[in-house]
Amino acid sequence: MWDYTDKVQEHFLHPRNVGELPGANAVGEVGSLACGDALKLFLKISPDGIIEDASFQTFGCASAIASSSALTELIKGKSVEEASKITNKDIAAYLGGLPKEKMHCSVMGEEALEAAIRNWKGLPPREQEEEGRLVCKCFGVTDTQIRKAIRENGLTTVDEVTNFTKAGGACGDCREQIQDILDEERGAAKSFTEIKPVTRPMSNIQRMQNVMRVLDEDIRPRLAQDGGDIELVDMEGTKVVVAMRGACSSCRASQLTIKDLVEKTLREQVDPAINVVEA
Amino acid sequence: MSDIVKGDSVIYLDNNATTRVAPEVVEVMLPLFSELYGNASSMHTFGGQMSHFVNEARANVAGLLGARPEEIVFTSCGTESDSTAVFSAVETQPEKKHFITTRVEHPAVIALGNLLEKRGYDVTWLGVDSRGRLDLDELARSIRKDTALVSIMYANNETGTVFPVDDIARIVKERGALLHVDAVQAVGKEPIDLSRTPIDFLALSGHKLHAPKGVGVLYVRKGTRFRPFLRGGHQERGRRAGTENVPYIVGLGKACELAGSAMAQERTQVAALRDKLERGLLAAIPNAIVNGDVEHRLPNTSSIAFESVEGEAILLMLNEFGICASSGSACTSGSLEPSHVLRAMGVPFTYAHGSIRFSLSRYTTEAEIDKVLEVMPGVIKTLREISPFTRRG
Ligand SMILES: Cc1ncc(COP(=O)(O)O)c(C=O)c1O
Ligand code: FES
């Protein structure tokens, strides 16, 4: 059982500013269903750059909901300039602290705010730029994000990095790399000059998000015409595991549907290397 | 802890995590903490009489399982029983380097599979289908000449899915391998008769059947070669060293006796309440699915996945109403991924994170189920209003 502060409890049970925001002119989206938490932040920013209103939609645990609620309260009325200085620490502090395993919820808030502000400025979402090197493929975390968390929060161990960024929290394959980054950062005064941008292939998370988008926007509506539906079960690299639902699941032609419709569409729209199999 | 929350003030639907100690069990244990504190190994009557109590408990446990008393070894918990069985099988057959288990075991067995793998064993992890069922042909094909042990749970703690243990035992025996069954969730809920089902080792845990935490049993079939896990004194006829935990063993004996007479109640009354709960929730809440094999399931368990909401958030809202359940979501366990059981079943992410397990007991009342049915739709609705993934419109 988590030791949540009364403030976390209160913001979880009575979240402020929930739902879509009519007239919003900036939206920031981070996380995904697959990762277990996601936050969509809506901002209404006046022409002179004041955040007049803010709202959120969050999928996640109590601390994710409370962090989102706190974030909207923190930024309302601030200028974009002021708001962009808000970090995960401010969110956690506003809530009277978060359990250390839950710090990533506050980081998600900071990232959603950053994404929304970029959106308002007309900049592309972060992921589409080459922002550092992908370190954790399970959660799609780059070294830039890890370094930022280390510096802003004075992190010293791999477990702390996991608590703040989730990196390292699933298969654990990236833990050694995280340790290397920690070592580098510790000796940063000497060795750290700049992070070289590296061109990188699509991360698993990006691919998964793209697959989910194409499934939802393109494939599901087409299947629905025949009373069928499809669900994403799992993804490993370019292997996409799906389950057919509704009319499709019993339809003998479902194998055909998977290859001819689903795989073909995903290969065209997401990644030519994709291979679709049924769960 | 500032405010202590007592059992009689909550609706306790988390009996697969642990159960309340039956009042009858408490009663038989109490004198063993006060005036009857002797050591069963002592020469004097005051201590020696304890072995009489222990053996009476042993007979009760054996009775519930259809075993002989000498096949019952008392341990400290289900986990110890699992470890003892696996290490015994491995140590008595050093030439065999293959271990078979499933992807959906309790961590008490998963961790042993991982350890054996590290030590160079070849481990076969049997998968399950979307309803949590094993492929028995795959099991049959997997057994080899060098298979040291097959370890398969009787019933899954998260979904309640019951494996066809009779068929599994037949398949394993026909191929000459040893079989360990983790029956921690099944004992007292599923009829088990070890005089008819050829199982070599079977684990149970006291606190899942209304005895205290910290006492368990390993059944070791007569004639099965055995190596103790804990070495030292000759308690339990040399099979488990350490002074017997007499009060807990006696409590477990009583709990087994009670379980035997309450079995029918578990399978009718408890099952009926579980079904009422499940049907009511599915009828009132759209986009909810049942996890597991509904046709072969523990009578007390229902695991339901709610689309596009997260389990910890559901549990904390239920907690506000004094309702205790558990979840297969990542956030509650402190891990960042949904439960290995739901992932092995291929439950879609949209659902896996929002899975809630309700587990009843014979102490669950209809009024409590009605209360949950009243509260739960509102909880899911509230969280779905917050979620960006809710199907709207
Ligand atoms: C299937 C299963 N095996 C083993 C155990 C471990 O039992 P104990 O807590 O007594 O060590 C549990 C308890 O959660 C269980 O559900
Ligand atoms: S790659 Fe980071 S946890 Fe798997």
Provide a descriptive summary of the structure in words.
The complex is a heterodimer of chains A (279) and B (393). With 279 residues, chain A is an alpha+beta fold. Chain A contains twelve helices and eight strands. In chain A, the strands form three sheets. Chain A has a three-stranded antiparallel beta sheet with strand order 1-2-3. Chain A has a three-stranded mixed beta sheet with strand order 6-7-8. With 393 residues, chain B is α/β, with parallel strands linked by helices. Chain B has two domains: 134 residues, Aspartate Aminotransferase, domain 1; 237 residues, Aspartate Aminotransferase, domain 2 (3-Layer(aba) Sandwich), CATH 3.40.640. The longest helix of chain B has 39 residues. Chain B is globular and about 70 Å long. Classes of the chains: A alpha+beta (279), B alpha/beta (393). Bound molecules: pyridoxal-5'-phosphate and FE2/S2 (inorganic) cluster (FES).
Summarize this structure briefly.
The complex is a heterodimer of chains A (279) and B (393). Chain A is α+β, with helices and mostly antiparallel strands and 279 residues long. Chain A contains 12 helices and 8 strands.
Indicate the topology:
The complex is a heterodimer of chains A (279) and B (393).
Chain A: H1 6-13, E1 26-32, E2 37-45, E3 51-59, H2 62-75, H3 80-83, H4 88-94, H5 103-121, E4 134-136, E5 141-142, H6 143-153, H7 158-165, H8 175-186, H9 188-191, H10 204-224, E6 228-236, E7 239-246, H11 247-250, H12 254-269, E8 275-278
Parallel strand pairs in A: 7-8
Antiparallel strand pairs in A: 1-2, 2-3, 4-5, 6-7
Helix pairs in contact in A: 1-2, 2-5, 4-5, 5-7, 6-8, 10-12
Chain B: E1 11-12, H1 23-33, H2 45-65, E2 72-75, H3 78-92, E3 98-102, H4 107-118, E4 122-126, H5 136-142, E5 147-153, H6 165-174, E6 179-182, E7 201-205, E8 216-220, H7 246-284, E9 288-291, E10 301-306, H8 311-320, E11 323-324, E12 326-327, H9 330-333, H10 340-344, H11 349-352, E13 355-359, H12 366-386
Parallel strand pairs in B: 1-11, 3-4, 3-5, 5-6, 6-7
Antiparallel strand pairs in B: 2-8, 7-8, 9-10, 10-13, 12-13
Helix pairs in contact in B: 1-7, 2-7, 7-12, 8-12
Bound molecules: pyridoxal-5'-phosphate and FE2/S2 (inorganic) cluster.
The site of FE2/S2 (inorganic) cluster has 11 residues of chain A, from loops.
